[in-house]
Amino acid sequence: MHRRDLLKFAAASGLAWPLAGSRLVLANNGPIVFASYAPMSGAFAANGKFNDMGVQLSVQTHGTVLGRELRSITIDTEGKPATAVRRAQEAFEQRDARFMVGGILSSEALAVGAEMHRLGGIMMTSAGADEITGTDCNRATFRWSVPTFGAVEQTVRPVLERHPDAKRWYTITPQYVFGDGLLSAAENIFKEEGLEHVGNSYHSLTEREFSGYLANAMAAKPDALLLLNFGAQCSDTIRQAVSFGLKNNMLIVVAWSSGLEQFESLGADLCEDIYFGAQYWHTVDTPVNQRLLETCREAFDITPNYSLASAWQGTEILIEAIRRAESADQAAVIAALEGAEFDGLTGAESMRAADHQTLKDYYLLKGKAKSAMEDADDYMDVISSGKSFLAPEDTGCTLA
Known about the structure:
alpha/beta, about 400 residues, Rossmann fold, seven-stranded mixed sheet
């Protein structure tokens, strides 16, 4: 990032949190360090780059909080949980990084969240596995993104409403906790709606060739192909599916897209008529999103995508919690976060105290024809949006 004078936006960039009661606890006057932890190399490096930009943008816009300098550092997790934990521990102990933002992959988010809980830090993630705010929840871990249950609910059900004749579904799934969560949620809907799940293909996190899986899908003759993978792997699957002519024979539905960055890499012709689930879309008309658009274009001369926006929002939430707590102490910040209601990127959002899950909208998008695009970023129509979350007692979360 080219360092710009973004302080003129600082007054406008805070979130409106109606929190009552605070206490003054200033442990020291040193910098407050935020770490962007995400894959900066490997298959998910593009997502990691934008995660890092989102953290930087928020930190540099605010500059200080409680009279203390804000700093951001970068942790390359390489998409490997063991590496993520080791480097997060080093950042905590050697660089005073107490706040972690990121976790593109659920496996690394779960591992780093457990380590921050042990060490006394706080993690804000956008990873999707239900376990993060479910069976593996802890007091140090918070999530802004909608988990896998809500993502599938807000994609498959609206697609079924528009295409009631789509009775036969095939799934392609990455074989790790995120993919399993999406698959389980989809299977529950298939069963409830009396749909036929005609097959599933699992693949590894290193897979780049999907032709065999797509051949299996074509042989099953589904009405809809549901893609449960993410990032570059999802894009590779779409490219190969379109080249095989699958768009002419079935619906293609992506449960969890990486948003604008993915659509730019694919192009309008490939995206046309495909349904994409999305945590964020830049055309959402909210005051906070307008602030992000302004600051992002000023700093980077780009429109924010999901990876950037989610990291920016997570950092904003943490900075405002520090301000409201009047402390960067872990316990004080956790108390400020739990139950908080705030204006977020998607509108009215809240941090559920029972499991540290942000309650927010999830979007179903549909790819436009290139001739219908009104500007260079206008790849999608917003078909629907809504909130779908398990009740706290059904998540399996018990905060210790």
